[in-house]
Design brief:
The complex is a heterodimer. By secondary structure, chain A is mainly beta. Chain A has helices at about 1-10, 170-175, 295, and strands at about 40-45, 55-60, 65-70, 75, 80-85, 90-95, 100-110, 115, 120, 125-130, 135-140, 150-155, 160-170, 180, 185, 190-200, 215-220, 225-230, 245-250, 255-260, 265, 265-270, 275-280, 290-295, 300-310, 315-320, 330-335, 340-345, 355, 360, 365-375, 375-385, 390-395, 400-410. Chain B is globular, with a radius of gyration of 27 Å. The chains are: A mainly beta, B mainly beta. The interface between A and B is large, with 81 and 77 residues.
């Protein structure tokens, strides 16, 4: 239980869609130099066992200095929250509590401080993603007695829900089990929802009898109707619980990773390696000509999470021992164009790492900013995808980094 | 650890120092009779300043040995007679008194014999115990929870109106860390139908609140204190009926009655009922049902918060037999219905989800003093609860505060689609015996055995049942104590407790890997822990008493924490007990200023060093909460109480508690640097609070036997932060609470048999919050009529 607890900590690090600007004209890496008109937003959770809330901090640089939650930061109502930045607004949303609640939205004022916009009511959900002007949210069933999920379209300008509806997870899976979306991602004009199959019953809710297939439910937009389910038997499911496994590159192609961590009755049952697959731009099928076995090149480590640094290069968080909710403690660079893999140097060693932030920041210029907590504190590390190196940056006093994002001063 | 050892040794040494003061004693004898010269047995005699008590024997006689060459005040009281106070000067020669008590035509409250219980109260003062005289609150509409809220060191937080969830905290411990008892029987297993939030104060005669060290007679695994609710010790026929009606369509009825035949045959019946719509006004941001947009600061009524419960307690047996002072068998039967209006925050609103619970509990009580040999007293109790609990969430709607809803035509619930119903099959058996010998020595043993065996099912998901059994837990706690009691000077008691817990459960697994195939592996776990403590009291002068205690205590994981509740809580079979070192020291001063004025002052300090607090966290896939041993705290605090009385006319009192509850977890798991909140004040816990009260009794106001009583009560809670105080600059807090309650009671009729009461709570209509955003009722009125015959 203690071990799982550590993983949970890392897991509680909530995710956000870095709907980063796609101006990848300049693939040359260069340091991020925020102008006076922008701030990095860092969400931090204290390392404490009770009475815990997240704090939103602002910083001018991710590569130097220190920020602290001591007497500083905007307190969030609890820690069961996730963060999305979309349309230059920072959304502090709810997950995992079962009940709906208040979502708060912030923008950056001219003093470089977070200023609260109006609150609105939202469900607590398990998957969400930016889609055009909306944020799509999905509250996904995990109970065979009630296999129906809800989706909501939140208008990021009006700050209110503009449409909602239902999906039947059992019908989507079509194999007697239920589909549980790991995440939702905009791909062209469609919404892709990769999922794992789950029993949703019988004291093994998150177990499955189908550990060696990947599926993506493709939804039309804005109708949110199921277009088709695409399947690939070369990998296990894409992404992980509450973690995105898809990335659309600068060419519009979609790359998907699988951790290969399906379980049944608590045992790991996936037999396929952790690997990348691809869906070419405009197509609604896996590209059978593309397969990139990362596990083979990475000394049998598997992918637990990714941050896309641009130009086909991913900073991967990796782990040796498999687990459905494990977060990694070693970093590698995968070039999905050239199918090469390189271990990163300069990051803390595996044994030093306590947790790694999953909701990280990159401008797709070869640099990625990832939060790492070691036994002596938390830092933002700057990862260079071209040189496969990492270096210590901003120190965050007071806890674990749960999200790194950026806002421009609102007009 | 070392620190604790040293402290405990200091405690031990200081106790044994008390015996250094030797004194000479003189006998005081007497006889109490009524106006016709007939002797009166059972008269309670309080002797101040030594704060001793005794009762007259069957012939109306009493005898006591007191320090010589001192002045004493003896207060005589007995139901049906006027109180009498006598001052004597005791020399070195045996003193004999003859007392005549006058008939009281207007004795309202004391219609049962109280001598024994009050005597017990005094004897137990070696413990840090506060005793609430519930009879003084019988004219109010309070339930036990709200009555306890007036005790220093106690804070009861509630989530709404009548029947709402209550979170009790005592000197910084809360939830299941504090144990509740009724007449010494643990209440943990009674279910929702018989709890603090629905038991009327009229059921209790007094409430004992033990802070820190708990006597082994209450042999349970309390971490930092216990509350024992003592019901009437019936020795006479009586009927006491009351009904009240008040704001929010609140109806309450209480019937207490008993028949005691000449042969000792006893029938006792208690029945009570609460009903409330709880539709009080709140101020809330109302979300648009379609868009989620908020309409800020709307004033709306709660609309789905009806609560009602009905409970009957019947007991039948004999009293005063050679083989038993009391032998009663009984049945407690009841049910409750509770609608769920909100989640943890006011913005989360429900319109159909509700809960039901039942209690069906046969009971057995046996008491015998001087069994076989003089000085051996035995107490045995047994209960078995067949009651059930059910969660009903089958309407797939989403409501807002304007009572609008969206309905979906697929199966689902508002929170979690469920009809889960379970029965915990709780059995409790308690036995204790004490043997008193050689005047000062008492040896006591006690044993409490609890058994839990959950059987549950969900009609919506019947296939799941076979994966979920068995879930059984047994808990046994044995205590042994040795007490030395030099009656008028000092008392010291040392004790040890053995905590034992055995859990049986089945792990399901898939033997073949085929879908739906399931097999079971039976598991059994057994844990034993030792606890110990020492407590003592000493009279420095006749009216100044000091007391101190030390204890190492455990709180074992509850079955629900081990096995989950199948709705929101996932089980954790790896839970360890919570432990605490508890230290208390206090001083009390009882001062009769002159014949009219009396002043009682007490102050207590306490220190708690507690580890492995069991707290909820989210499970791995964030679907449920799971309890875990998370952190350690220390708490150092003080509480004080002062009461002034002027004859029977005026009474005023106040108490205040300050506690400094600090996080004592220096290194969080995986960290070599101190936690940023190490030694920070534990959030979301009131730390400064108090009560004030004032009452005026106007006797014979409208002719003889017609009394008017005016009472006022003030509650104060300092504001506190919801999350760690040192972190963040824009923060959430629970604001200061200040609430004023008043009541007027008019008593009339032959021998004071009819009472009419009007009560107003929260008279200034303040906005009160115990939990962040969960607003409590505003101003409310109620009227009550009470009639009794004895």
């Amino acid at each position: 239980m203690q071990t799982n607890f550590k993983f949970l900590y890392a897991f509680v690090a909530v995710l956000a869609i870095g709907f980063s600007s796609c101006d990848s004209d300049d693939p040359q890496p260069g340091p991020v130099t925020p102008a006076g008109e922008s701030r990095f937003i860092i969400a931090s959770t204290p390392l404490a066992s009770d009475g815990v809330a997240d704090y939103l901090l602002t910083a001018e640089s991710l590569t130097e200095g220190t920020v602290s939650t001591l007497g500083n930061g905007v307190e969030q109502d609890g820690t069961y929250r996730y963060y999305v930045t979309h349309k230059n607004k920072f959304f502090s949303m709810l997950y995992g509590q079962g009940n709906p609640g208040a979502v708060t939205t912030y923008e950056l004022n001219t003093e470089g401080a977070l200023e609260k916009l109006s609150d609105f009511q939202s469900e607590t959900v398990q998957a969400f993603g930016a889609m055009n002007d909306d944020i799509v949210m999905a509250k996904i069933s995990r109970n065979s007695a009630d296999p129906v999920s809800s989706w909501y379209r939140l208008d990021a300008d009006q700050l209110q829900i503009v449409a909602d509806g239902k999906w039947d997870q059992k019908e989507i899976a079509g194999n007697g089990e239920q589909a549980f979306f790991t995440w939702v991602t905009q791909v062209g004009d469609k919404l892709f929802a990769p999922y794992f199959s789950m029993k949703a019953c019988c004291n093994d809710s998150f177990g499955t009898s189908y550990p060696d297939s990947a599926w993506i439910a493709v939804f039309d937009y804005p109708s949110m109707e199921l277009n088709k389910v695409i399947k690939d038997d070369r990998t296990s499911f894409i992404g992980r619980y509450f973690l995105s496994g898809l990335e659309v590159d600068e060419q519009g192609d979609t790359y998907a990773f699988s951790s290969s961590v399906a379980t049944s009755n608590g045992a790991m049952t996936s037999t396929l390696p952790s690997a990348f697959t691809r869906i070419k731009k405009g197509e609604l099928e896996f590209d059978q000509s593309y397969y990139f076995n990362v596990e083979e090149l990475a000394d049998d480590y598997y992918i637990t999470a990714k941050t896309y640094a641009g130009n086909g290069k991913f900073i991967l968080t990796m782990n040796k021992e498999k687990g459905a909710y494990t977060t990694g403690n070693r970093f590698g660079v995968a070039d999905v164009y050239n199918k090469t893999f390189t271990w990163v140097t300069g990051a803390p060693s595996e044994s030093e790492i306590v947790s790694v932030t999953i909701n990280n920041y990159s401008e797709r210029n070869g640099l990625a900013y990832i939060g790492i907590t070691t036994e002596t504190g938390s830092w933002v590390y700057e990862f260079n995808a071209n040189t496969a190196t990492a270096k210590e940056g901003l120190k965050v006093d007071g806890g674990r980094i749960t999200a790194i994002s950026k806002l421009e001063v609102a007009e | 650890m070392q620190y604790n050892k040293i402290l405990s040794i200091v405690f031990l040494c200081s106790f044994f120092a008390f015996r250094a003061f030797a004194q000479q004693n003189t006998n005081l004898n007497g006889l109490v009779a009524d106006q016709s010269g007939k002797s009166v047995p059972g008269v309670l005699i309080k002797i101040s300043p030594v704060s001793k008590g005794l009762v007259t024997d069957a012939d109306g006689k009493f005898s006591i040995n007191l320090p010589s060459n001192r002045n004493y005040t003896l207060d005589f009281s007995f139901m049906g007679f006027e109180d009498l106070s006598k001052n004597i000067s005791l020399g070195t020669e045996t003193h004999t008194m003859s007392i005549t008590l006058a008939d009281d035509t207007n004795d309202l409250e004391e219609f049962t014999v109280l001598g024994k219980s009050e005597l017990k109260e005094i004897r137990e003062r070696a413990f840090n115990v506060e005793v609430v005289d519930a009879r003084k609150l019988h004219h109010t509409n309070l339930d036990l929870g709200h009555a306890l809220d007036r005790v220093s060191g106690v804070r009861v937080r509630e989530s709404g109106g009548v029947g709402s969830r209550m979170n009790f905290s005592l000197n910084g411990f809360s939830g299941k860390q504090v144990k509740f008892f009724i007449d010494g029987i643990p209440m943990d297993d009674f279910g929702t139908s018989f709890q603090l939030n629905n038991i009327p104060i009229n059921l209790a005669e007094r409430i004992e609140v033990y802070k820190g060290v708990v006597p082994i007679g209450l042999g349970a695994d309390a971490l930092g204190g216990a509350v024992n609710i003592v019901t009437k010790n019936v020795q006479k026929n009586y009927v006491d009926v009351s009904y009240s009606y008040g704001s929010f369509n609140t109806h309450r009825t209480v019937i207490n009655t008993a028949y005691v035949g000449k042969s000792g045959f006893t029938v006792q019946l208690n029945a009570f009922q609460n009903y409330s719509d709880n539709n009080y006004w709140i101020d809330v941001d109302v979300a648009d049902i379609e868009t989620g947009k908020y309409y800020p600061d709307q004033r709306v009524r709660r609309f789905h918060d009806t609560y009602h419960n009905e409970t009957v307690i019947a007991q039948l047996g004999v009293q005063g037999k050679p083989y038993a002072d009391k032998l009663l068998i009984g049945l407690t039967a009841g049910k409750n219905y509770s609608e769920v209006q909100t989640g943890a925050r006011l913005v989360t609103v429900f319109g159909d989800w509700h809960r039901k619970g039942t209690i069906l509990m046969p009971t057995f009580k046996y008491q015998k003093r001087n069994l076989f040999v003089s000085g051996l007293d035995v107490n045995v109790n047994a209960n078995y609860n067949f009651g059930s609990e059910q969660n009903i969430d089958t309407v797939n709607r989403r409501y807002n505060w304007f009572q609008q809803y969206k309905e979906y035509d697929v199966p689902g619930g508002e929170r979690s689609y469920t009809l889960y119903k379970f029965n915990n099959n709780n059995a409790v058996f308690t036995a204790n015996a004490h043997y008193n010998f050689g005047r000062v020595h008492t040896i006591a043993v006690s044993n409490v055995f609890n058994s839990f065996n959950r059987i549950g099912s969900d009609a919506l998901n019947p296939d799941n049942d076979r994966y979920e059994e068995p879930r059984r837990s047994q808990k046994n706690i044995t205590g042994l104590s040795y007490q030395l009691n030099w009656e008028e000077e000092a008392s010291i008691s040392a004790f040890t407790k053995i905590y034992n817990q055995t859990n049986y459960f089945t792990m399901s697994y898939n033997p073949s890997g085929e879908y739906g195939d399931v097999a079971y592996r039976n598991e059994r776990e057994n844990f034993t822990y030792p606890g110990f403590g020492i407590t003592g009291s000493y009279f420095v002068t006749g009216n100044i008493q000091v007391k101190a205690s030390f204890e190492r205590s455990y709180r074992l994981p509850e079955p629900e924490e081990l096995f989950g509740d199948m709705v929101n809580l996932q089980g954790n079979l790896d839970l360890q007990p919570e432990t605490s070192y508890n230290y208390n020291a206090g001083v009390s001063i009882y001062k009769q200023l002159n014949s009219d004025h009396r002043l009682d002052v007490s102050a207590n300090g306490f220190y708690r060093d507690a580890k492995d607090f069991i707290r909820p966290r989210l499970n791995n896939n964030q679907t449920m909460q799971v309890m875990d041993n998370l952190y350690s705290v220390t708490n150092i605090g003080v509480e004080g109480e002062v009461r002034w009385t002027y004859r029977d006319l005026l009474s005023a009192g106040a108490n205040i508690t300050y506690q400094n509850l600090r996080n004592n977890t220096e290194f969080e798991e995986g960290q070599t640097i101190p936690s940023i909140v190490y030694r920070d004040r534990v959030p979301n816990m009131p730390y400064l609070f108090g009560n004030g009260d004032f009452s005026v009794m106007l006797k014979d106001l409208l002719g003889k036997g017609n009394d008017l009583n005016f009472g006022y009560n003030l509650l104060y809670v300092h504001a506190f932060y919801l999350y760690w105080p040192s972190l963040g600059s824009e923060k959430f807090d629970v604001p200061e609470q200040l609430s004023h309650d008043v009541n007027v009671t008019y008593t009339t009729g032959d021998k004071g048999r009819l009472q009419l009461i009007a009560e107003c709570r929260n008279i200034l209509d303040s906005k009160l919050y115990d939990n962040f955003s969960l607003q409590k009722p505003g101003r409310s009125f109620s009227g009550k009529i009470r009639y009794f015959i004895y």
